Amino acid sequence: MSDSAHLSGPLIPAMANVHSHAFQRDMRGAAERISARSASDDFWSWRQAMFAAVAALDPEQMHTVALATYTEMAAAGYGTVGEFHYVHHQPDGRPYEDPNAMAKALAQAALEAGLQIVLLPAAYHRGGFSDGADLAPGPGQLRFCDPDVEVFLERVDQLRAWADSQAGVQVGIAAHSVRAVPASWLAPIAQYAQAHSLVAHVHAQEQPRELAECRAEHGCTPIELLERSGFLGPRTTVVHAIHVSDADVNRLARSRTIVAACPTTEANLGDGFFPAIRYRDAGVRIAIGSDSNVRIDPFEETRELETLARRLSVSRNGLLAASGDLWGELAANGAASLGLGAAPGRELRIDMSHPSIRGIAEADLPYALATCAQPGIIATPSPAGGPHRHEH
Length: 392
Ligand SMILES: [Zn+2]
Prior knowledge:
Helix content is 40%, strand content 16%. It contains 15 helices and 14 strands. A hairpin with a 2-residue loop joins strand 5 and strand 6.
């Protein structure tokens, strides 16, 4: 293929990755040693392994793993990453000399990798709730935690002030989950997001146990608690939202909240089936995230989402048929989820001669992007560096 053909291929938007924990890439391979006889190797045992992986990280090592993760993202077709960041402090829970040292290490890595980043510092306070009281954080969780919501918001203030002078770095806010954050923190975080026009993210309803715990503590689902706390809204993204009632779907729909599906991670962790068809029918916007980074490939996430939807509907009428351009829709919803507005980021030049899409009419490209494409079709990973052939 001549170079000129690569310069003339169609352009598509780079994908927005709305949900990443960069350091979890370090768990690849090792976290798959699962005992075939154990019925309890699940999300919760994986979480114990994650606490172990995070225990040794300092800001320099965070930068190293994040650079590997983000370099892979940029090459695979992501243009922006929303980093849901909760490893704030030293292993014993004391803040670093610069309390935002970890966040800044992540931002630096993204910029070096050629990715825009939206830092989503996540509030975290407790190990859960049991017998009428907050559970103290376990030793593996100390470095995630703040003593009160004011201390957390103060650090977000400082991070925002720093990011103002950093091109390519924006800041949103997150509550880790209703498990890790007491209900009394949710309203102040939502109000802070509102006051400063920030996007707000939260994990919810990834696993059935989380619903049982929330029911015992609050008598409702996590999404209902978020609604009561003023946390839902068009600038809010609920991550996972897998185990949802029809009432939960309605709450998300009427508040215009975005949901983030993380298909390859949710599959890897055995989370269940993201109810894509129910969200489609309710008009809820869906964005995608690479989450644990067990896979970094927006084409695969898009295809997984589409084929999951088809399996759920027991037909070929999944998300793509309704959308016509699922990739474009996920990119636009992702930009909204990260508060990127009209500047969603770079575009990708497509090499129509790549073996996976060779012979496909350009008019059919949107359909191919959600069914048979792969990162190798990207002809120019970074227009900033001028058009050049992607090595594949
Ligand atoms: Zn997550």
